[in-house]
Every structure is written in structure tokens, then in C-alpha cells.
Amino acid sequence: MTLKRVLLERIAHSGPMTVADYMQDCLLHPEHGYYAKHEPFGAKGDFITAPEISQMFGELLGLSLAQSWLDQGRPTPFTLAELGPGRGTLMADMLRATRGVSGFLEAAQIVLLEASPRLREVQAKALADFAPKWINDTSELPDRPLFLVANEFFDALPIRQFLRSGTGWSERMIGASDSDDLMFGLGTETPQPALEHRLGDTKDGDLVELCEAAPRIIQDIATRIAQHGGAALVIDYGDWRSLGDTLQALQAHAPVDLLDDPGRADLTAHVDFEVIAGSAAIAKCRHSRLTPQGVFLERLGITARAQSLAKELGGAQLDALISAHRRLTHPEEMGNLFKVLGLFPPQATPPPGLEP
Ligand code: SAH
After folding, report:
1. For the chain, which has fewer Cβ within 10 Å, the N-terminal or C-terminal residue?
2. Rounded to an integer, what is the distance from CA 205 to the centroid of its chain?
3. Rounded distance between C-alpha atoms, residue 43 and residue 234, angstroms
4. DSSP annotation of 198
5. Which residues lie below 8 Å from residue 18, measured CB to CB, with a gap of 6+?
6. Each residue of 304-324: pLDDT tens digit?
7. Pocket test for ligand 1, best of 116, 211, 268 (most atoms within 8 A of CB)
8. What number is the average pLDDT over the span 197-226?
9. Could you tell me what percent of the chain has a pLDDT over 70?
10. How far is 13 from 16, CA to CA, in rounded Å?
11. Mean pLDDT of the chain
């Protein structure tokens, strides 16, 4: 049975589903979910992420966190965590780059939040030398200093979508058509207290997205950082506030229909960094300015790192390095679309690459 059949039968039984429930099943259904079944990353996959483009990305993130650790007086022991580590490439690059930071790796316990059993196996192989521990939920993060990265994790969290009408909102739902296909529809109009702050910047007919899972995840992280020290780097595509439909399905590096073949394509939505910053503030954590990825990587010295790697390379490898540097930093590539938000304790300075 395909995931489409599973969902159509559920809709026949219990009525239309929210976009969030649809996303959850498409990505993480134990049998048919995208991350459970497919190898999404790389040239042969459906999309490519920054750490898979170049080792420089993970190296610079690792050094930024390690400098924060030094600046905060080398708290020991501490948790070095990643949310949604994919193939484990980013963490492996961070660990290699920080080998020279005296005491850092000895004091670190590696903790990974990963929902897909298949990807956990891939991560176990990539990080075999470091005895990582996996958790199912951020509430399981140890109560100790926490240094954390999350790259393209929050964009995979399910979002609900609402259409403004008057001071109420109609939720975008997924139901079944007469020809037994999945189709979008609208629920009845109701007030949405969680969207109160969007009444000022939207008008009738505007679509707004709501990620209900993000605030609690951020509060779990921010509480530990505020109380015990540490820092978090959240990198994703999106902006302070998103407006309009940003949900997209990608397959083989090209957009595809959202409802055609559930579980086969990667689904993501833009991240609202305002929600992340606000949730961190509730937990008494400070946040940096929202910084374009290109600016962040340039401040951390990506050009010097690329030049030093270039010395050993020639021909196609050198071309690949030059193009990777451009892809990660250029405003017309990932440099501006992707943003970085840093979280840090009230008494500390932001991680290098970010301004308060
Ligand atoms: N950070 C990696 C992978 C990004 S893809 C990179 O930059 O290459 C998203 C990752 O988050 C995958 O590892 C996916 O399995 C994981 N993921 C998605 N939703 C999740 C959830 N709700 N809980 C835990 N992990 C999740």
C-alpha cells in the first residue's frame, strides 16, 4: 500500500487532515516516510545541504562553537549536540576542525536528535570514533552546558497554514477529491490566539504559517544555555517573519506537486526566526542579530580557509572548491536565502561570526 492510499483511507474515516499532519506523515511515517526510505542528500538525491557542499561549512561552525566554549571559560563536561544531523557530515567536520582546541573534545559528549532509524545508522558509521548518544526529544538533553547546531532542521518541522478572513483564520486542510486524489480545501473560520501578532501585518486572503513544534524545542535548548552556559547556531532558509505559502516539495533537485506522491519528495517550509528568538527570550536566553549565511561564513574566514585548501588542489577539484565557496556565500546562491541565529547566555558574548 502507498502512503497516498494510507492517507486517503484515513481521510475517508476521520475527515480532512491539517498540512502539519500531512507533512509529519510524508517525512516521518515509519514505513512510507521520506526520511525513512530515501537517501535525500547529494548529487543523486533530492537536495544538497551546506555541509554536503563543502567541509568548510562544518569546520567553521565547529570553530565558532569552540571559541564560544573558550570564551565561557571551558565549561567541562558539556554537551555537543546536533538536531537532524542527516549523514553526520557536519558533526564529523566540526569534530575534525576542533581537534586542535585543547580540552574541547575530551570535555564533549556528542548528542544527536534524529527521528529516522535509517539515518541514525548512517550517523553511527560517520561518527563511530566519538560514541554519540541519540535522543528522541530535546527534553532529553542533559542538564549541563550545551553547544548546539541545527542546519536545515527547523524547515522540516510540520507547519499549519491559515488564510486570514476578518479577525479569524481558516485552516488549509487536505481532503479527498471525487476522483480519489488528495486535494487542498479550507476549514471553517475561527480565531487563532497563536496568530494574534499577525493581525497587524496581514490582510484578508493572506496566508500565514505556524510551526507549533518549534517553541518548545527552542525553550528546551535555551533553558539549558541560559542556566548552564553554551551556545546554539540555528541555520535555515527563511526570514524574521514569513508571509504566504512557503511549503515546497523537492525531488531530484526540482520542485514537484505537493500532493501527487506523498512520501516520495522532501517537504520543507521557511523558518520564522522571530518565533525562535521569542522562544529563546522566554527562557532568558539572548539571541544575536539574524545574519545572512554568507556574511557569517565570511566573518569566520571562509575565504582564507578556501585559499589554504586551494594550495593542495588543481583541475576539477580546484574548480569544485571555488564553486562550493560561491554556493555557500554568494547572495544569489545560499548566502542570503539562508540565515543564522545565535543563542547565548545573558552574561556571554555571541558566538564568533554573529553580532549581538
Ligand atoms: N542537518 C543535515 C540534514 C538536514 S535534513 C544537513 O544539513 O545535511 C533534516 C534532518 O532532520 C534529517 O536528518 C531528518 O531525518 C531530521 N528530522 C526531520 N524531522 C525531524 C524530527 N521531527 N525529529 C528529529 N529529526 C528530524
Report:
1. N
2. 28
3. 24
4. G
5. 160, 171, 173, 174
6. 999 999 999 999 999 999 999
7. 116
8. 96
9. 100
10. 9
11. 96
